Amino acid sequence: MNTFTVKAFGTESTTADLKEMNIERREITATDVEIEILYCGVCHSDLHTARNDWGGTIYPAVPGHEIVGKITKVGSEVSKFKVGDLAGVGCIVDSCGHCESCQHDLEQYCLNGFTGTYNGHDKHLGGHTFGGYSQKVVVNSDHVLKVPENLDLAAVAPLLCAGITTWSPLRHWNVGPNSKVAVVGLGGLGHMAIKLAKGLGAEVTLFSRTPGKTEDAKQLGADHVIISTDEAQMDSVKGKFDVIIDTVPYVHDVNPYVTTLNISGTHVLVGYLGGLEPILNTVPMILGRKSVAGSVIGGIAETQEMLDFCGEHNIVSEIEMIKMQEINEAYERMLKSDVRYRFVIDMQSL
Ligand code: NAP
Ligand code: ZN
Question: Where is the Enoyl reductase (ER) domain (predicted)?
Fold first, then answer.
């Protein structure tokens, strides 16, 4: 298969900084589009992958799965896009298309494993996939999204992961005008969860460890802010929430949040991957028919639904634009929860 070389930014090992490197992209097939990447959001998953927090990172690793850009080439069988169109790519660049999940627009739960935008198995070239910290990407057009023309393009990029990851559980658990939703952690995912839950008409509360974020949270649409380290404040919301979207990336005590769920309420973990410590107490779950659940990104159709909703409701991410060369410093700031509220890389800087 013919390939071409593009510049990218990635890392060679768990401890190395990200730096400029060259990677190969395939020439388009009949069903592919080629996209010139204009902006790429910086997700905490990029950092987890670069530093092998979850195990399984294959190096060199080129992160980035919040991609927006312009179509530069279109395969002969592609009718959905033409050269010059805006396009978005999220966390999924391929899936089997025929398993029960794919048949139900749940590519994120593809029973044969979806192909991640980075660190996935590249079905075309062998080896592993490289993400959006690069000049161009080639993607099967079924996995490419249409981007609303009325929104600021750079601020749309984070919708492709932070947006859909919070939208999917809000929709699955039927959040609407009568819902009481809480969001744990005000970062990239958290700030989108607030905006989207508000957009769906819910009453929204933020749980944060960081008192300095209260004003921002209210401006983003939160009706209430609870400082999660303050016991009296935590007690004041016992039994209140229908749905909690928990975006905390590291192990943390989920028990105090479960007590803030209403009868039949659900605490949805989207951040931390791994065993819970301290152990989860089933008493409030059993006595209140409460659930602790998880959710991963969202399907392609659902991502399009979210983008269209954002276009209609003028919802975008709050971003801080950085140059590609500033990514290592951005990761350090992300580790300190010092992001307001998503870094987006101007890919022209590469
Ligand atoms: P982020 O921008 O770094 O935000 C995380 C927020 O969590 C922080 O701003 C902070 O908020 C809070 N936090 C951080 N460390 C904490 C700790 N040790 N204890 C308690 N709270 C803490 O990260 P993100 O990009 O939103 O991603 C969040 C997590 O979701 C990551 O683990 C990421 O890998 C994962 N993720 C999952 C999916 C999925 O499909 N399920 C998709 C994308 C990302 P406060 O300062 O307000 O406390
Ligand atoms: Zn992500």
Answer: 10-345
pLDDT along the chain (350 residues), means of 10: 97 98 98 98 98 97 98 98 98 97 98 98 97 98 97 98 98 98 98 98 97 96 98 98 98 98 98 96 98 98 98 98 98 96 98
Pick the CATH number of 162-294 from 3.40.30.10, 3.40.50.720, 3.30.1360.120, 1.10.230.10: 3.40.50.720
Residues with Cβ within 8 Å of 237's Cβ and at least 6 positions away in sequence, in order, are: 182, 205, 224, 226, 260
3-state SS assignment for residue 208: strand
Q: Which atom belonging to ligand 1 lies closest to the Cα atom of 294?
A: 41
Torsion-angle region of 55 (φ positive above 0: left; ψ -120 to 50: alpha; else: beta): left
Ligand 1 pocket member 226 (CB < 6 A): no
pTM of the model: 0.98
Candidates 117, 112, 118, 161; CA nearest to 143 is 117
284 CA to centre of ligand 2 in angstroms: 31
Residue nearest to atom 32 of ligand 1 (CA): 249
